[in-house]
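User: Hey, my collaborator sent me this sequence without any context and asked if I could get a structure. I don't really work with proteins. Can you help?
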Amino acid sequence: MRLLSSALCTTVAVALLAGCGGSNMSSPTAAVPGGGTGMTAGHHVQPLSAVPKWMIPKVRPPFHGVKAPKSVTRGMYISEFYGSSILGYARRNVGNKPPYCTVPGSAVNNLAVDNAKNLIDPDGGSRSIIIYGGPAMCGSVAATISDPYGQPADASSQNAMTGNIAVGNIVDSSGVGSVSMCTVAAGCTTNLTSSSITGYGGGVAMDNSGNCYMTSENASFTASIMTYWAGCSGSGTTATGYLNSSYGALEIDNSGNILSVDAFNSSGSQLYVYSGCNPACTVVGGPYPLHGSTLFVRLNKANGRLAGVEYVNGQVDLYNYSATGGLTYLYSFNNGLTTSLQPEGIAWQPKTNQ
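Assistant: No problem. I've predicted the 3D structure and written it out in structure-token form, which is a compact way to encode the shape of the chain:
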């Protein structure tokens, strides 16, 4: 994950840190924790309370992307942390074709799509949640919600325009991860925290029953926990039976199993599949190895395909997915992605049913 610090610079993804340094805004520079064993020296994080309220956008940004034909309602979105656009690709890209549409996005860690096919951009650069209307790919801006609690880095919602949105903050004003609960109508009104969270927040998920989950690192990047909030409220409970050594994406498959990426494991990025975690986790499958350095993964609606983004090699990997049978690598694509811009966020349209 990446963290932007100082004024407007306040964002995270791939467990990477970007520090702006000083009071003048400048291009972020990344520092990547190696294998979950520690943070690269030289990062600088300022408390979010130092961000002036007038710098938090309250209006919808103009559309400057490239729209897809209205008939195109299926595909995949990829974000690049240092890029200025979210890229829309065909759902099958065996031929390594370039993106066919874009929407603006700044300092984006991960992405989400809801069941109404709206794209949710937890926009780290503007510290807001931007919703691009569906069902067509790369739609126009439908709503913008300021996140007053922290730097948004991931999101989960069944319907972002009418229901709750769980927004994972890599850090909040206290300097550790949290989950903002937001709606289009009321904005972000609750910040879910836990005394057990001592480091950066990672992946976030909200199930169909309205429960929230988030992974987080400890302050020294040597261990990870999963926190469970029943009904997306209260003080949160630390999940038991959670085996990940580092944080990463959370995804829920159509059977209600929780997919959790162990992004910085010493053996390489890998995937665990759990049931429960409310708060007791039971291992269903894994760890299944992922290619390269992968932080975020997503499932398609049928749950037969899983896609992950290698943020070091700058490519998207496609796998066959089975909760108990593991992952079978299919192919990769990278046309239109720039490795130096750190691709890392991903979302299928349509998404898994959870």
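In plain terms: The longest strand covers residues 281-289. You can pass these tokens on to your collaborator as they are.
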